[in-house]
Amino acid sequence: xxxxxxxxxxxxxxxxxxxxxxxxxxxxxxxxxxxxxxxxxxxxxxxxxxxxxxxxxxxxxxxxxxxxxxxxxxxxxxxxxxxxxxxxxxxxxxxxxxxxxxxxxxxxxxxxxxxxxxxxxxxxxxxxxxxxxxxxxxxxxxxxxxxxxxxxxxxxxxxxxxxxxxxxxxxxxxxxxxxxxxxxxxxxxxxxxxxxxxxxxxxxxxxxxxxxxxxxxxxxxxxxxxxxxxxxxxxxxxxxxxxxxxxxxxxxxxxxxxxxxxxxxxxxxxxxxxxxxxxxxxxxxxxxxxxxxxxxxxxxxxxxxxxxxxxxxxxxxxxxxxxxxxxxxxxxxxxxxxxxxxxxxxxxxxxxxxxxxxxxxxxxxxxxxxxxxxxxxxxxxxxxxxxxxxxxxxxxxxxxxxxxxxxxxxxxxxxxxxxxxxxxxxxxxxxxxxxxxxxxxxxxxxxxxxxxxxxxxxxxxxxxxxxxxxxxxxxxxxxxxxxxxxxxxxxxxxxxxxxxxxxxxxxxxxxxxxxxxxxxxxxxxxxxxxxxxxxxxxxxxxxxxxxxxxxxxxxxxxxxxxxxxxxxxxxxxxxxxxxxxxxxxxxxxxxxxxxxxxxxxxxxxxxxxxxxxxxxxxxxxxxxxxxxxxxxxxxxxxxxxxxxxx
Length: 646
Fold this sequence. Notes:
By secondary structure, this protein is of the alpha+beta class. The chain has twelve helices and 31 strands. A hairpin with a 2-residue loop joins strand 6 and strand 7.
């Protein structure tokens, strides 16, 4: 319930939900619970304030402090909608203008160099108050960041849809501007180069996205973060880009009967919350989680719900440097709503086995634990670091999600630990997970299990318009969700499958492992993967990467053949009939000749729009097949024998 004050009350220090000058009066609109976007037009935090404005703010602050009053933060009247192309005057530090960058629109990738903010966040401490009504949040976010240049500077953070109440920098209250999806303030300066500085931001409201507040499939209140690709900005101020990694900790004040799960490990709670930290809301419990391994903001999540915890065992024993356990193992758990625990256990039960396989393939498991959580997410699965979220509805309906589990576990290495350099290289995340997820079934059931899954990928790719129109490494989408397509997933997986064919298993798996070891805990582009594969292979692979990842399409082969009985030779002709705008593909191709007494196979390097070879054979072929084992992404038209030369 809301806490309302009936008269003046003391608010000695700002708390979540309790700020100097807050009160219980209804908003001017008469609606105390209306949604809140970025504040615009209010002199205290909607307009840039120079030195004169800062002095005015101090006067306002004195008046507010003298008025007392403390209430649970609630959304003020809704502001005008965001205007992304609006232009604001610069913030001032003295007489120096500090102009901020253009806002990064949600879903639109930044142009090259656009996100260079000279800001390296090294730690987020996110504190949330979630009231029993589950209809709003109050938050305190403390960021520690590194400055490489001393002196006054503009700090620009991504933040939208919440009301900012207070910004303090190194303990000093600052003016700020909050509009167009950005929170900006002018920091007076730092004593020296490479200083670690701290800013604290207090906010309140109803997140429009990113932190989903809703009832679950069973009618129970839940709160789950869902940040991909750049939706963290909707619920906490951040440098919301996949290139900036930071450690993160969460302090969550939640109602009894709800558990909290987050990145990293639980280090405290549940314990009765201090009401001075919750704006006077009594009866909440405080939970504390910490992740010391730096991760991008899109992987920082928390879940608050009535969840049952399932013990699934341990994995990666001796190969999990971030694990806090004395045995060096990773604890693997499932988290599900009570009516769905039986199916959740069936879905998640092989997770430890999967982790152990991928540790052997790629290297040590990078995080503290691995939790599989039934959650609110717009995706079937979301690979949040150490805390994977799965569609609550899919689990409640009893769907088979084992393939999704393997896919999301692979992401802990590729996507999370090795993160794409920018979204154009998304295949390094999704393509790798779409290949090595199915590889688990090759490991446990045999090669045909992988072949069948690659055939399903191939059918999806051949039917997808985006594959015919755009390359895998694609910088054109204006909405990042458009990158969740057959290029990034299925074609990316088939590129790895073909690379394995070209290089052989030993080179392929050695190269993938070296790629992970080289770039774990950082970002990597397609060129980084190519370079490492070439080092291991000992030959240039420029031709392979150029045609498969930087151009659209795939080859369409038509094969014809004739038999010369006098010479015991087969004449083979293969034409590439794909769109003329697509590359002419060069690939080693296995050709199978079905003979009366058995099968004869040869591997031939095929290139050119029309390719011919004359080959000796022990007998006349009954049929000719290209790529009989399904290594290639191609549409193959197997023509008939040309009767000539007999």
